[in-house]
Every structure is written in C-alpha cells, then in structure tokens.
Amino acid sequence: MQGISHFAHKFWVSMKNIAIFASGSGSDMQSVIDGTLSGLIDGKVVAVVTNKEGIFAIERAKKHGIDCKTFKAKDYGDNEMRDKAIVEYLKGYGIDLIVLAGYLAIVTPVLVDEYEGRIINIHPSLIPKHCGKGMYGLNVHRSVIASGDKVSGCTVHYVDYGADTGAIIAQEQVEVKEDDTPESLQARILEVEHILLPSVVAKLCRVK
Prior knowledge:
- The protein is of the alpha/beta class.
- The protein contains seven helices and seven strands.
- Helix 1 (27-38) packs parallel to helix 7 and helix 6 crosses helix 7 (182-205).
- The longest helix is centred in the last third of the chain and has 24 residues, at 182-205.
C-alpha cells in the first residue's frame, strides 16, 4: 500500500466525525462503519448522504442509528444547488472527513471547496487506468477485461474538481483471471476494497 499522501491537510488534527456518501448497497460504507466499531478507525460515522431513495445503504445507516438524508439533484434544480444543501446539512455534524463509497453523483466545486483536502473516493481500478467520465460499476471491469490487462485493483484518492483526478492515497492490485467476467472481477476487487478503504480512513484519522 502506498503511504498517505503529503496532501493530507494540516488541520486534520482530530479527524473523528465521518460522513459517507453512497448510491447503492453500501458495502464499502459498511466496511468503514465496521472499522469504527472494531476500534480500527479512531472516529465515528455521524452522517450518511445518498442521491437515491430505496437503496440498501439507507437501511445500513438506519441499522446503526446513523442519520441519513437523500439529496436528488432534480429536487434542488441542479447539482450545485444540491451540494449547497448537502453542505448546510453537514455543518451540524462538524465533519472532518467525507468518504465517497460508491457515490455516483457529480461532486461540484461547492462541496470540494467547503471540504478541501478532506474528501476521499474509492475507485475500482488502478488509476490512472480505467477511470474518468463514465467509468463506474461494471463499466470499469468491462473496460479492464476488454483491454487485456492482467492486473486490476482499486484506488483510494482525494477528490478534486475532475473525475478521478485527485492525488492517489493508496492502491491494491487484483489479478485478472483468464475466465473473468465483469461480475467476477468486480466481486474480487470489492473484497479488497473492504480492506483498503477502512485502512486508509484509519490512517487519515491518525494524521496530526
């Protein structure tokens, strides 16, 4: 695993309050919650943000008593207005770190500027390969298999104004097997994500 980037912000002295953004089942989110409960992560997930209703991530948040709110761009006019609403929502929680864990909405400068250097994302490939606009979910793994790559994996990186362009924090490799389908590759990489993401969050929470 690569070391924590020097981009770690100087005011991350007591990174305890974590918000997680999710758009699906929330398994990556669960790995972070589990890390806080086991003591691996010196912090607490205090808020969950989604952009979709009826997803299992919401049920996970409810199970753990974590406040959760859904923000759909169409309810706010556009993505920037939605992110302004998210910023207002999070202000009451003193958020130190935002973790994008399978969050498929566009993050605008409104959110990035408010939480500069404190937003991370996990992507299911080895950035800079198979990332950027349109590269999410099974699309990533289809691209990997079509390319003939023998190795894929996952990347945790800081979020900036671009799509998967922020500084890389850590990566882990996963072998691409000859008989892999996008679904089988996705499943194996997801297992690694569930180890890498909470590990990175734990290290960032200890940054002084």
